[in-house]
Design goal:
- About 30% of the residues lie in helices and about 15% in strands.
- It contains 12 helices and 12 strands.
- The chain has a 7-stranded mixed sheet with strand order 1-5-6-7-8-10-9. A 5-stranded mixed sheet has the order 4-3-2-11-12, with helices on one face.
- Strand 2, helix 2 and strand 3 form a beta-alpha-beta unit.
- InterPro entries: Calcineurin-like_PHP (IPR004843), Metallo-depent_PP-like (IPR029052), Pantetheine_PDE (IPR052963).
- It comes from Eucalyptus globulus (Tasmanian blue gum).
- It holds the Pfam family Metallophos.
Length: about 375
């Protein structure tokens, strides 16, 4: 994701929200009929070169941003041998331009046996070259068509006894329920977030309300018969999305250089949907992978393990945010079970021992200094 001022941005709330509470906030899925298909389908059962599910490994990665040459080089340098029997889940924000997207996914498909993908916001930007004439939904169709040609999966699939379920999503501003920061003048979303200018939507779809979030959530409806089959037959399930399903998966506003960030990162309907898959109380066999915020994360909330493993921007890695890049992609599943927790994981480590205080609006010292310096330089 891109914010025009902020080198770091994120924090989370600790108060759990039940699925029943969330579902009351989601409007009726008026977009669902656009995506429903008239026949019952069965999940694809993919072969594995391992032959034995006990040897299956699943790696996760998000926010590749390969429009940056350093990031494209990182992808090119991934071993062409090491992962030939492995699965990779790509949780969005591959590249801004179509050509870089296709090149990146081609490189990943050459290196991994199976590659899965869900779209991120940067993938749907339309502001360069011939893409200026595209709408974001038109570009989405082009990306999904490219994935189909390349053999990249965007639908739920079974590999051995493991179910893998991509979930389409988008954010809405009402996702944020924390107290706003009012002690400093915070730039408006339209100024800080490039999505408001680089994405092009039909008039009836907007970030301001839940229409975009509902539209993308409805894209999952045509796969629900497959999902029900997976729930009945698979011992373990990994769901993944680009956007975050709970505000607790982002640092508190007072910790963020852009405190309004929670308004542009997540979706209530996403949490409702993944709870419908994993269960209201979750289980040790449930995992959800996400991206977007550029902070590595590994935490269990209400019985579901939530993981983020972003490549992020070169400037962020140079500051060794998230511990650099050598640990990526992260292996979340191996030998028939989920792997040990990712560590170190700064923010999820922090919240594992410190309670979340969403009503505390006193800025963290580094954020207060940042805004004080901005005030001084504009005087």
């Amino acid at each position: 994701m891109v914010l025009r001022l902020a080198s770091s941005y994120m924090s989370l709330p600790q108060t759990p929200r039940s699925s029943s509470h969330l579902s009351q906030r989601i409007p009726s899925r008026k977009f669902g009929k656009m995506w429903k298909r008239g026949c019952t389908r069965r999940p694809d059962i993919l072969p594995s070169l391992n032959g034995d599910n006990a040897c299956l490994r699943v790696f996760v990665l998000s926010d590749l941003h390969t429009d940056y040459s350093e990031n494209m080089m990182w992808v090119e340098c991934l071993s062409t041998v090491k992962h030939k029997r492995d699965v990779l889940l790509v949780a969005g924000d591959v590249a801004e331009t179509y050509n870089n997207f296709v090149l990146t996914m081609s490189l990943l498909k050459e290196r991994f046996e199976h590659v899965f993908y869900v779209p991120g916001n940067h993938d749907l930007w339309c502001r360069r070259g011939s893409e200026i004439s595209f709408g974001s939904l038109e570009k989405l169709e082009k990306l999904l068509d490219a994935c189909k040609r390349l053999g990249v999966k965007t639908d739920p699939v079974v590999i051995g006894s493991l179910g893998i379920i991509p979930l389409f999503s988008w954010y809405h501003e009402s996702f944020d329920r924390e107290d706003d920061i009012t002690s400093f003048r915070i730039p408006p979303l339209e100024m800080a977030c490039k999505d408001y200018h680089a994405c092009k939507w039909p008039e009836e779809l907007s970030n301001k309300d839940t229409s975009l979030a509902s539209y993308f959530d409805a894209m999952n409806e045509h796969n629900m018969d497959i999902v029900e089959d997976i729930k009945k037959t698979c011992e373990q399930i990994i769901t993944f999305s680009h956007f975050i399903p709970r505000q607790e998966l982002c640092p508190e506003k007072r910790m963020l250089f852009y405190p309004n960030l929670p308004k542009i990162i997540g979706s209530d309907s996403l949490e409702v949907r993944l709870r419908s898959i994993h269960g209201a109380e979750g289980s040790g066999s449930a995992c959800h992978v996400f991206g977007h915020t550029h902070f590595c994360w590994d935490a269990v909330l209400d019985g579901i393990r939530y993981v983020q493993a972003p490549l992020a921007y070169p400037r962020e890695r140079k500051r060794r945010m998230n511990g650099g890049e050598n640990w990526l992609p992260f292996c979340v599943y191996s030998d028939g079970e989920f792997t040990e927790r990712l560590s170190p994981c700064y923010w999820s480590d922090y919240y594992s021992v410190n309670p979340r205080r969403p009503h505390n609006t006193e800025l963290a010292p580094w954020v207060a200094r940042f805004y004080s310096q901005r005030i001084n330089t504009t005087r």
